[in-house]
Amino acid sequence: MQGLTAELIKGLWYVAAPGRDLKPGKLLNKTLVGQPVLMGRAANGEVFAIRDHCPHRGIPLRYGQFDGQSIQCCYHGWRFDTSGTCVEIPSLREGQQMDLTKIKCGSYPCVERQGLIWIFFAKDGETPAEAGQPEPPLMPDFAAAARPGFHIMLPFHCSVDHAAFGLMDPTHAAYVHTSWWFKKGAKKLRPKEKKFAPSELGWSMVRHELPPQNIAYKLLGTPVTTEISYMLPGLRIENIRGAKYQATGLTALTPVNEGETEVHQFFWVSAAWMSGLRPLFEHLMRVFLDQDRRVVIQQREGLVHHPNLMLINDADTQARWWMRVKDAFLKAQADGKPFENPLRPMTLRWRS
Questions:
Q1: Strand partners, 209
Q2: Which residues of the chain have a pLDDT value below 50?
Q3: Closest by alpha carbon to 28, among 74, 58, 60, 73?
Q4: Chain centroid offset of residue 223 CA
Q5: CA geometry: angle at 251 spanning 141 and 280, to 5°?
Q6: What is the DSSP letter of 216?
Q7: In the chain, which end has fewer C-beta atoms inside a 10 angstrom radius, N or C?
Q8: Is the whole-model pTM more than 0.85?
Q9: Sign of the alpha-carbon dihedral angle for 95, 101, 105, 110
Q10: pLDDT tens digit string along 56-78?
């Protein structure tokens, strides 16, 4: 738990980008889960993801040209379709026979759901169905075509494990989130008691009514209830239901490599009028998330010395759960067995 790097999980869907970032005829390249990924939107609107290298000389395909149907390498003009299969080698002369269908740069299962681009990073060539997760998770209370009203992303210079610990840390807010609009009353620590239950790939904080000091949630109409789910490979889904409106927030951790992580925050809201406040909401989201980003960078300064760390009950129990669930998932993969969640229902108590 105290290392600077984390083992990356394969065989699950990861958030790669918001759908609005993929413009028709444009390409988007990223390193995700240690892989060079090139994403695009074809002329028919379908999204795709291929490995960002040409199998001829290895140059990244992102430097080439995309016409909405195929990508042409900038070096020798080899052309690949959106499945990563070669469809043209311009230097071949008449009579030179080559089966172009056997030349592939590699591809990744890629879908667009609820305005998000999800990519499946396989383990040992497994398909999503074979891995037991045929589709990415859907956000509750919103249709498959619903797009998030708000989104930000910040790079975190830390492993996905340490980013995950921050997601499920119930006691740091009073000391890290010090903005005036959040800080009011935050230093007054209150006793908390929450019930938790295991879920398919993690656990959930059982639905409960929010206390009156959660002022922002009152916009949804009181009373307001929430349920928060945490699941592999690094998703925090908060489903909020008010008397008038519903909202769902997703924080998605997508590792760049073993020591760096992209952290996305998305919000879907049923109140259409809130879309007019998008610049303000996204600014506040960025300020809030950046406070978490800064503290994990500061934490890294201490972790380079490999100190002995101490976790306590119950405030740090969810951090322990993350490692238990992750280790159980990786062991099940190694043993070729179905994943069995090791957690049991529990009530946790702390002050925050």
A1: 225
A2: 185
A3: 60
A4: 30
A5: 85
A6: G
A7: N
A8: yes
A9: positive
A10: 999 999 999 999 999 999 999 99
